[in-house]
Specification:
- This protein has helices at about 5-10, 15-20, 25-45, 50-65, 65-75, 80-95, 105-130, 140-160.
- The protein is mainly α.
- The chain has one domain.
- Helix 4 crosses helix 5 (about 65-75) and helix 4 (about 50-65) packs across helix 8.
- It is elongated.
């Protein structure tokens, strides 16, 4: 995402962008703050009673609804994903602590569970954002797949725990 590309999408010159942002770094910071707000909004719209499920659904929705931003965030070599993770992961761990299915796990164990699910979910989300799934899947189909993987990860973590 560059100022020139944004100006193209707006149908204007880069001048209005420079009026509002001193440089590309300031634009990127504003973009990241907006991404976090949108992510939080999508998460707040989910209320299945299962926080882990809600996180996955909100993430898939973000990838589907904001594909270009999602691809830029996770598929380009930039620091935005690291900053995003630093700001968001602690809140996700706190939500996971509220999930009855994840009761009894330590914070370190929850972080490993989240990492495993993030790896799976990011792969799935990239496929959604790129339209590279072999057939058209509805959101519920994708959630069923994500839930199945989450159950596998949680069962494996419980089994490993002893």
């Amino acid at each position: 995402i560059t100022m020139r590309k944004i100006a193209e999408q707006m149908g204007s010159s880069v001048a209005p962008i420079y009026v509002n942002f001193k440089n590309v770094e300031e634009l990127n910071e504003a973009l990241l703050e907006r991404i976090i707000k949108v992510s939080q909004q999508l998460l707040s719209e989910e209320s299945s009673g299962n926080p882990f499920y809600d996180m996955g659904k909100a993430s898939l929705r973000f990838a589907a609804e904001y594909g270009t931003i999602f691809r830029d965030l996770v598929m380009t070599n930039n620091s935005r994903i690291k900053v995003y993770d630093e700001k968001v992961i602690p809140a996700l761990i706190e939500q996971m602590k509220q999930d009855p299915e994840l009761e009894g796990f330590t914070v370190d164990e929850l972080q490993i569970i989240l990492l495993k699910m993030k790896i799976f979910q990011l792969g799935l989300s990239v496929m959604v954002a790129n339209g590279s799934l072999l057939r058209e899947y509805g959101l519920q189909d994708l959630m069923d797949l994500l839930s199945s993987a989450a159950n596998d990860v949680i069962l494996s973590a419980r089994w490993s725990k002893g």
